[in-house]
Amino acid sequence: MGRHNRDWRNDSRYPSLACELRNGFHRAQNGRNHGRGSEGKMLRKALSITVLALAAALPVSGTATELRVGFTTDALTLDPGNHRNRDTETIIRNLYDGLLTRNSKMNIVPELAESWKQVDPVTYDFTLRSGVTFHDGSLMTADDVVFTFQRLTLEGALDGKTSPRKDLVGPVKSITKVDDRTVRFTLKEPWPILPAMLPVQEVVSKAFTEKAGPQGLATQANGTGPFKLVEWRKGDTVIMERHDSYYGGATDIPPVGKACVERVIFRVIPENASRVAALLAGEVDIINELPPYDMKKVEANGKTRVMKVNGTRTFFVALNTSKKPFDDLRVRKAANMAVDRALIIDRVLLGTAVPLNGVMSPDAFGFNSDLPAYQFDVAAAKKLLAEAGYPDGVDVTLDAEGPFKDVVGAIAGMLSKAGIRAKVNISETSTLQAKWAPAGEKTGDMMFTSWGNGSLDPSDIFVPTLRTGGRGNRAFYSNKEVDALLDSADVELDQTKRANLYKKAQTIVNGEAPWIFMWLPQDIYGVSKRVSGWEPSADSRINLHDVCVK
Fold this sequence. Notes:
The chain has 550 residues and is an alpha+beta fold. 29% of the residues lie in helices and 21% in strands. The strands form 4 sheets. Strands 1, 8, 9, 10, 11, 12, 13, 14, 15, 16, 17 and 18 form a 12-stranded mixed β-sheet that branches. A 4-stranded antiparallel β-sheet has the order 4-5-7-6, with helices on one face.
């Protein structure tokens, strides 16, 4: 019998886990909420019926090649500068290009920029490609690039509001036009990850945006991307057609030229079962967030396959290091030894996650592959608790959001067997954010949570979650040596030295165990075998420029 055929619910060693855990965990990992209760179910059912009916009604040319994506959620907006949502980013990124982009291996390459260079520690020059046009035929210029980034970075630039993406561009002092093909970014201080953050910033047309305004840009699109907008039927579909005057995209990502398919349709199918059914029936060609328990079904279909890639979201249990019992290193180490991560990954996630011994993804810059793992050992955990003055164990509360109720139930059961009697408390996101705010009262004991790292740079996850006072520092962890290492790495331009600084910081954090180190889930896709030229990317973006269909 294969390892995935064993049922967690029949394992007497641990609490039972509801079947919907596997359904909900991968959907919830990116912070999405598809509706709860009977109203949510009715809405999802209605949406599924709507999109299926719409599919039948859409005109299809007898000669046009068409690619359909079954997608979990609709875009929140089509304005590249007014959101902080990965699904929205995926849709927008097929309509708009940026100065830089990433290939499927997450390497940074030029896109609208022909090249770039770092002039000095705080100055970057980007040379633009010539002859790039927006979908309305107008030429993209340096003025458009300057306008785009001023819109992102200046206070009140969005009709009195400031872009929610402002901090994604870092400590920018100014963006100026050097000449018709050169744009200069000047920073207030060194920020080595600027190039890593630019692939998620798209260039807009100055003239079009000033005419349409933020409200118009929310529902219309005039980008430089491989596809142009035909129609957005909110909650149902986003319909695009090939931009035949496309400049070709990044020269480092072959093939270069206009898109392979003539038409792209994103169909909004929030219900997992409906999305999988649409793939198996040949109604869509790619689906995201394939539930792990449906992988065998997709592989057995004959016309579909499963594709996976490591994601960028680190899961962990934050331990409140500011108060008893987790102010004691021995208790924190005991908590790590008490949780059988391998069993959860195997039985619940069906092997679709990578165990972590620290904060960062194995694919991230500066990842330390030499960090030791805390081995599952209940007896050793009990011994450490006794040494810490808790021979009879401790009583604590484990906080979590609703989508993770079952997985934290399993974690709590494991902890309890080692003497850390954890009571699960499920709360709304806003309640937990207030309770676990770094500037709050620090009353919690443990919190199951996660942090995304789309840039795959340590600064994007290490600083907010583990530097003293960081906005995501749920463990209230404070170590002066770690702070100094992170601060030095933040301005270090020598990449080898910078990586070593992060590796040293990871070693210290691993030894001090402010978290129960958990896992990095994989993103799972179902893909039709008639699709070629596509690979999943760790940033969750579904780039359709190079995708062909038979």
